[in-house]
Amino acid sequence: MRILLVDDHRLLADALGSLIEARFPDWTVVQAASLAEALPQLDIAPDLVLLDLGLPDASGVQAVQAVRAHAPQVRIVVLSADDRPDTVRATIELGASGFVPKRADSRELVQALATMLEGRVTLPPTLLASWPRATGEPSVELTPRQLDVLRLLVDGQSNKLICRSLGLSESSVKTHLEAVYRRLGVGNRTQAVVAAARLGLTFASP
């Protein structure tokens, strides 16, 4: 598995890269200190992007927008010292599939990475605690195809990319999404990602 770590704090990035490779020997960490350095690395198709919001050439959530535009299918997990609920929600709305506060200690960080490796969603506990519970919680049953659609939605893929990935028509994807939202008791993608994190849903790779 190849991870692109985008963070301009070199000491922190080196420490985080070493921690990841020590805990997960099968993962390779490639670093970039700016958005400009990161974009060419995206062409090599990393499995995961760990993205800081405080880059010198991208302001806040603009970094998520730029990475998503350049690599629509890549999975993005945000690392940031700004873990206010509004910031976390904004990154999810723009296509991030997880968020790890920079103030997390090494144990919490390793747990968050393990959660992602297991195919689950990681979000700050403060956001999960403050977010109103969906009407479909705590018990939900999704069909295998609905789980496939939700997995790609959580990964930040657009409806068009979900169609392409699963070989479905746009109307079929919309029908599946409507069923997923109904069963989760939510009304949009952001709420679905939060519900998936709260329920601990696991998404197997296709």
UniProtKB/TrEMBL annotation:
The keyword Iron does not apply. It comes from the Bacteria. InterPro entries: CheY-like_superfamily (IPR011006), EvgA-like (IPR051015), NreC/VraR/RcsB-like_REC (IPR058245), Sig_transdc_resp-reg_C-effctor (IPR016032), Sig_transdc_resp-reg_receiver (IPR001789), Tscrpt_reg_LuxR_C (IPR000792). Residues 135-200 form the HTH luxR-type domain. Keywords: DNA-binding, Phosphoprotein. The keyword Magnesium does not apply. The modification 4-aspartylphosphate is found at residue 52. Residues 2-117 form the Response regulatory domain. Gene3D superfamilies: 3.40.50.2300. Transmembrane segments: none annotated. Signal peptide: none annotated. This is Response regulator. It comes from Pelomonas lactea.
